[in-house]
């Protein structure tokens, strides 16, 4: 059965892709002609690039709508556009949805973190009141881990029987033999020094300070730290102690191939986050053959693999002992673990994830016509 799906793809209508944008892009990129499905991908800002993949099966539609500050693009502009767009289903892949749903609507809620943050005013009203109404009307909800499913069902019990877990995949570049160089500015800053790779950005729950403390107490004066995930202007330069000046660097925006190289060349990846709906770095590091240290919290419980060292979130001494163990790992042992980890990581396939999405689409269409 040929299926026409409208995809809210505002996270592709940006200068640089982030996590949710990667999810949307992979759904579009991994669609094949034999799937008998075509897309209309909707963006909201004609002034910015629209990063739909080359060879998109379907079309891109970028339009603006007055009052976007008050979410009118989502609540009014999009539903009006859908009425003449010819799609059979709407997939809102970025946590939120319109109350007016002229098509059967599927929402992906990645995690409940936005609802747990301390926000006030119109933003709070939109998330807590408007979205509660929108979710009541949606046909189905997709989420990305058992941890997120539990959190969603606890917050919105009326969704419990409309929830499907579909884990993310990781990019094909992690399984490719091709190599890309690092950006010249980062290569020059490192000067060939070994480094730890911190993943997470500036949010408090990601714990950049934890990574700084691990570097300071690692016992290796030659070791550097590369911070990844910081947007422009968000690198916390003021938090770097004088003793670590010159050994802490922040990665610029990286293409997928550059990110793979950054992982592969790291001595270890440090991922001290306290909560994730799906922890890409825990899988990506292992796919790249790099040991990764994290705590088995929330969805990360399901991402413990052959190259992971896991420790209780607040036990710094255990983290430090694990790091020192990784630093002393014999090359042959590391190579054996890396081979096992690469095979394990192949279970996180975008193609498998995308095919499961298509099953949900057809199930919903069969129920709602």
UniProtKB/TrEMBL annotation:
Domain Glycosyltransferase subfamily 4-like N-terminal residues, every copy: 19-172
InterPro entries: Glyco_trans_1 (IPR001296), Glyco_trans_4-like_N (IPR028098)
UniProt keyword terms in alphabetical order: Transferase
Residues in Glycosyl transferase family domain copies: 192-332
Stored PANTHER family: GLYCOSYLTRANSFERASE WBBK-RELATED (PTHR46401:SF2)
Protein name (Swiss-Prot/TrEMBL): Glycosyltransferase family 4 protein
Taxonomic lineage from the root: Bacteria, Pseudomonadati, Pseudomonadota, Betaproteobacteria, Burkholderiales
